[in-house]
Specification:
Number of strands: 2
Radius of gyration: 27 Å
Shape: elongated
Helix content: 25-40%
Amino acid sequence: MVQVKRTALRRKTPLRRSKPMRKRSSKRRPTSPRDRGERSDPKYLAWLRARPCRVHGCRGESCAHHLRHDEHGAALGAHVKDDRRAISLCHDDHMFLHNEPWALREMLDIDDLRAWENDQLAVQRSEYAMMVDAELVTNPEQDAQQ
């Protein structure tokens, strides 16, 4: 095998920069759910999944549909998930709502889907609050532990 002597590559014209490079932010992206604004409430989700569907009243296993907007309709952000802002829907209605929200709005004969979701959330949260209050009345020692 013959070895070939190689010379270093040299550029004939220097590289030019049109603009100075942008300095990157030293801030890291939030990695934990809490840092991203997510709030977890497993007890509420467990109770929610045992509830009937808010659209048709179907009994059985329900899904938690997380609302991605606040009470006034302002978006919370695509990656913000708050378990306390979820309503129970059966799997079919949950997929229907995500894939064809306009069809669900027509089927329920409502003008504002977000307002309907907020109404359902308010009813469901009040039912949950009554259930928690009833548990505290029947189990006063549980309240003392917290």
